[in-house]
# Entry
Amino acid sequence: MAKKYGREVDGWLILDKPLGPTSTDMVNKMRWAFNAKKAGHGGTLDPLASGVLPIAFGKATRTIPYIMDATKKYRFTLSLGESRTTDDREGEVLFTSDHRPSDEEIRAVLPALTGDVMQVPPVFSALRVGGQRAYDLARAGKPPELPPRPARIDSIVLVDRPDRDTAVFEVQSGKGVYMRSIARDIALACGTVGHISVLRRTKCGPFDLSHAKRIDEIRLDKSSETVDNADTLPVSLLEVGTALVDIPALAVTDEEGRILVWGQSLDPDSLTYPLPVSSHFGSNVWRAMLGEHVLGLCSVQNGRLRAVRMLENHEFFGGQDVD
# Structure
């Protein structure tokens, strides 16, 4: 999480991250541009990856875990014939192969790589091994043997075959899935080797490229205006609750909302409005809504409805305690 300084800014900026900088570089750059106290991102993109990078400011940082856990979509190009140390074009060549699979051969292996699978992460990854990052060990000439990890891959679709050496795929997956590993495994399953040469994230939870701003669309010069006014933001932000739109909404009254915000509980059977169908997060999480305003998230625990993560505090209700 970024260091606190500057002014209170709340909301989401969906950045179309360019090639080159890291996700942390982009958070720091945007935090500076917005002069924001608090900022963070909703899912790392490698320097050689572009696309949807959700950046949270202020209260929106409380919803980052739900973006991290959300479904994501990617489009990548697999270059066939060379495996690389990093499983992308930045690494050194390890092995080569003259075999180039047909479209039919490629499509035939995809079902086995889809669903709930065990995936071996790339050696050049941020996973910790004995207290050290895997990529640090690899760069020191001691690449670790990383065990397979559970991964959920909803779909892998071959969408283009520009030439015999490249194939373009679209993937939908859950949290913590490595596209570099998918590309590597597709090539191996086809009896050859390969690596990712182009990677772009097209969707992250409720955010997609239609929400994304390019760097050149964001005013980065703060010298002309520094007053604490939303109109002076470098670009308009999406509301904090936008990150939670995929979670079923529970309408609450003013009194019920106040009870949840103050950390007290409610009898689910006594609510003014019934609980919606359970959320897709699998833990009965709901978005507490007072009119059109998102108060935060709640769930049933030990038979009582309680706050899970509130976006508002007691000041929202004028500091008035519940009876």
Observations:
- Residues 223-228 have pLDDT under 50 and may be disordered.
- The CA atoms of residues 262 and 314 lie 6 Å apart.
- The helical segments are 23-34, 64-68, 103-109, 134-139, 179-189, 254-261.
- The two ends are 37 Å apart (CA to CA).
